[in-house]
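Reviewer 2 asked us to include a model.

Predict the structure of this chain.
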Amino acid sequence: MCCQRLHPKRRDSLMPEPKTKETDDSVLEFIENVDSVKKREDAFKLLQLFAETTGYPPKMWGPSIIGFGSYHYKYKSGHEGDAPLVGFSPRKAKISLYFATGDTERKAMLKDFGKYTAGKACVYINKVEDIDTDVLRALIARSVAFLKETYPGN
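Predicted model (structure tokens):
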């Protein structure tokens, strides 16, 4: 469900506006209000890692997604919108990592990632120490490159 908000599927042009839009809310304030101390610490680690890897400043997308960079998508149906290139969210159960949908290279890259579960655009982890952060950096860089190739001119 969270993945669908970040990377919406083709929709009828009469569909409502996407819920996940870039906001001016404070990323640091959002992280400081994460209930779990461990998730808060991991969120700060991920914040630094995503920012260093992408070169983009963090922005809040909706109430709970921290995104980096953005791209504009437009489907043949006429539906269009904006989404972050990559992002993450320290959710109650797990940390959601958001990557591009449709990138066939991601599955192979995840072999050496560590403990995770995956959806269409999301990869879920329990904590940062469960994963290889070098592989995460590669996943982030690949997702950004894939979206820039797929949606040139952004």
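The domain at 2-12+39-150 is CATH 3.90.1150 (Aspartate Aminotransferase, domain 1). The chain is about 35% helix and 20% strand. We have added this to the supplementary material.
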